[in-house]
TrEMBL record:
It comes from Paenibacillus oceani. Keywords: Cell membrane, Lipoprotein, Membrane, Palmitate, Signal. Gene3D superfamilies: Periplasmic binding protein-like II (3.40.190.10). It comes from the Bacteria. This is Extracellular solute-binding protein.
Amino acid sequence: MTIKWGKPAVCLLVSATIVSGCGGSGDGGKGELGGQVQPNGGEALKPVTLTLYNAQPGAVDFEKMGILEAVKKKFPHITLQLFKREKGMEYTDWITAQTAVDIIYDSTAFTVSSIKQNGLHVDLQEQIKLHNFKLDTFEPNVLAHAMSTNSEGKLYGLPFTMNRYGLFYNKNLFDRFGAAYPKDGLTWDEVYDLAKRLTRTDAGTTYYGFTAVPNNIMLNNQLSLSPLDPKEDKAAMNTDGWKLLLNNLRRFGEIPNNKFVPVTESVKGTVAMVLDSGAISQAGPDLDWDVASVPELPQKPKTGFKPATLSLFLSSTSQHKDEAFRVMAFLVSSEFQAKLTRQAVGTPLADPEVRKAFGQDLPQWKGKNVQALYYYPDAPAFPPRAEQLTNVGVNFTKLLESPDDTNTILRNFDEEINKAIQAEKAKLQAK
C-alpha cells in the first residue's frame, strides 16, 4: 500500500520562497535526462515547488553544499525546499499531518523500514523508461545493492552519496615510531602487525594502533554476509563466515592498550590508523595524514566493503513526480556529482573523472591518495529477504565487547536476534 495526498508542506519548510517566474532551460517533455532538452513547443514551464525531506541531516548539508541553488540554476522553474529529520519531524509526524513530500534522502539500507513500510515507495521503472534514464552510470554493485534491499528487487531510490572507506593513517606517528607508511593492497594481517607495533604509551600518552566503527565494518562486510536469514525469520550469524569476520576484527581490540576508540579521536593525533570514511581529515594542519586502500581479506581477495549508500527516493505523496524525478536524475548525474565529490562526498558513480576529483575543493585533501578509496570493487550485495519476513537492527559492537569465546558469542547473538524478531513480529501483529 502506498500513501497519496496533496497537502502542501509550507509550514514545515526551512525555506519558503515561491518563484513566480519561469525559465526555458527545463525539460518539459520526454527526453534523456542530463542533456539540454527543451520544453515541448518552446512553452514556458509553470513554477513548481518541490519538498525534500532530509532524513540523514548528518550525512549531507543540502544548503551548505549549494544543492538547492544548483537545482534552481538547472531548472529555473523549480524551487527545491527542504526540511530535515529532527525532534517533532520524524516520518510519523509528517505522515500523520498528511504533508506532501516529493523526495526523501535516507540510507539505502532503510528502503523497507523507512520507505516501504510507511507506504512512501514508488517503483522508479516508469520514470526511468519515460525519461530514458541510464542506470549504467552507477557502479554495478551499488545498483545491485539498492535493488536487493527489498524482496521484489525493485528500484525505489537513486543512490546519491556513498561512504567511501579507506585506511587513514597518521604519518606523524609512523615517523615518530619508525614504521613504514601503509600502502595500497595491504592484507588484514599486515595491518594487524602494524597496529601491534604502533600501540604504545609514550611520555604518558597512550597511542592506539588501529580503530574503526565495528558496526560499519561488520554490516558492510567483505564477505557479503547478512546477519539475517534471507528465506526464514531467523538469525544467520552462527556460521564459519561470521566466525572469521569476528575473529579478524576482535583481535585488534585484544592488543594490549588498544581499543576501538571513536574514529573522531584520530583528529587528536593519538590514533595511528583508522578504517573509516575520513574523520581524520578534520584535524588541524599540524597533523600529517594520508590514506591507503582498505585491508584485503584473503578469503575474498581484491574486494572492498558492501556499498554504504544513501539514496534519493521518489515519494508516493508527491504531486509532481515527473519534476521530482528530473531533480533526482540531475543530482546523480556526472555533471553534478563531479561538483559534489570535490567537497569530499563519496560518489556512487563509476565515472573515473568524477572519482578523481574527490576532495579537490578542500585544502586538507589536496595531494592525498584519494584513488585508494576506489582501489577495490565493492563487495556484492547479499540476497534480499522475502517480503513476509521481519527485519530487526543488529548491534555488532556488542560482539566485540563480550569476554566469551567466539563460538559462544555467535550462538548467544543468534538467540538474541531470534528473540528480537519474535518481539517485533508480535508488535506488528498487535497494530
